[in-house]
């Protein structure tokens, strides 16, 4: 998706309305995934979520974007969808299933590390600034303090192995995102629809291999699970994406990037207030260190 140059200054009220939507909606989807995967396994949940959201987005795009994408554009969007939704988002759903949603959001908040590393190695070849490098070190130190594997495990109520899977998902998300501007992509809504549908197909395949008996859980879906699923489809995927898409074309990049360190704060609060997730004083300190590192990484980006 390319960023458009806007000739007139966007309406301030509209700008902050969309930004606030991304702050709250994307921050709340972590708890939504936590609740939705209480009964339905993560990959099957992601498959159904993006199958419905992608179908709705395709129907919307047919009324507003008349021109059909070329074969090359479809393949490009399919690749991005595989990386972002098929692998990136579903790995997040898997991690949230086993770990507190707020802590998963905090790990995802450190995704600029992957963006900076991949961009330096494979794309722009720009060396990170001193402030960016400092932010990376600070952020990683905070994560180590939070998940110190050498500390006593008696107080930890969740496993650490999903962190490796989540890290792989974050890496795929960053790689897919960085590839967008170098690929021939369809129009925004068509691209989103293709990405979601390809991600859904991938998740169905992974679920079939790794989640035996997953379909047997569907008759046991509770009202709580159904409400969380509906929220993820209609609010998380459709409203959240629409808001973010508008912001990429109208908001200053520095302002837009603030969602990376607001989302985990929202997720941590909702996980504590609604999900009854406990946070120790050490965990809170570690969270502040990680968010501080992300702020430094964001501020340290070179203007291009």
TrEMBL record:
Highest taxon of source: Bacteria
Tell me the compartments it is located in: Membrane
What the entry lists under Pfam families is as follows: EamA
Keyword Disulfide bond included in the entry's annotation: no
User: What keyword terms does UniProt attach to this protein?
Assistant: Membrane, Transmembrane, Transmembrane helix
What are the annotated GO cellular component locations? Answer: membrane
Transmembrane intervals: 15-33, 39-61, 73-96, 102-123, 130-152, 158-180, 192-209, 229-247, 259-275, 281-299
Location of the EamA domain: 18-147, 163-298
Predominant localisation class: membrane
Annotated membrane topology? Multi-pass membrane protein
Family stated for the protein in its record: Belongs to the EamA transporter family.
Q: Which PANTHER family match?
A: EAMA DOMAIN-CONTAINING PROTEIN (PTHR32322:SF2), INNER MEMBRANE TRANSPORTER (PTHR32322)
What is this protein's name? Drug/metabolite transporter (DMT)-like permease
């Amino acid at each position: 998706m390319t960023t458009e140059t806007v000739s007139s200054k966007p309406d301030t009220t509209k700008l902050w309305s969309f930004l606030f939507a991304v702050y709250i909606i994307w921050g709340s989807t972590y708890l939504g995934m936590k609740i939705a995967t209480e009964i339905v396994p993560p990959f099957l949940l992601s498959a159904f979520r993006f199958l419905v959201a992608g179908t709705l987005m395709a129907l919307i795009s047919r009324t507003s974007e008349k021109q059909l994408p070329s074969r090359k554009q479809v393949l490009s969007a399919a690749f991005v969808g595989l990386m972002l939704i098929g692998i990136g988002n579903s790995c997040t759903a898997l991690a949230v299933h086993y770990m507190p949603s707020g802590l998963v959001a905090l790990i995802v908040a450190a995704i600029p590390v992957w963006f900076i590393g991949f961009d330096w190695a494979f794309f722009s070849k720009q060396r990170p600034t001193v402030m960016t490098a400092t932010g990376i070190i600070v952020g990683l130190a905070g994560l180590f303090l939070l998940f110190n594997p050498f500390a006593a495990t008696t107080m930890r109520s969740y496993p650490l192995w999903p962190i490796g899977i989540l890290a792989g998902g974050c890496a795929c998300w960053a790689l897919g995102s960085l590839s967008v501007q170098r690929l021939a992509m369809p129009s925004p809504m068509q691209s989103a629809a293709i990405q979601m549908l390809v991600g859904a197909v991938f998740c169905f395949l992974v679920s079939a291999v790794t989640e035996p008996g997953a379909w047997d859980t569907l008759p046991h879906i509770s009202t709580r699970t159904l409400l969380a699923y509906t929220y993820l489809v209609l609010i998380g995927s459709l409203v959240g994406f629409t808001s973010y898409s508008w912001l990429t074309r109208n908001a200053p990049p520095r302002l837009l990037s603030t969602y990376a360190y607001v989302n985990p704060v929202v997720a941590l609060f909702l996980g504590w207030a609604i999900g009854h997730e406990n946070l120790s004083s050490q965990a809170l300190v570690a969270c502040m260190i990680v968010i501080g590192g992300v702020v430094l990484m964001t501020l340290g980006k070179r203007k291009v």
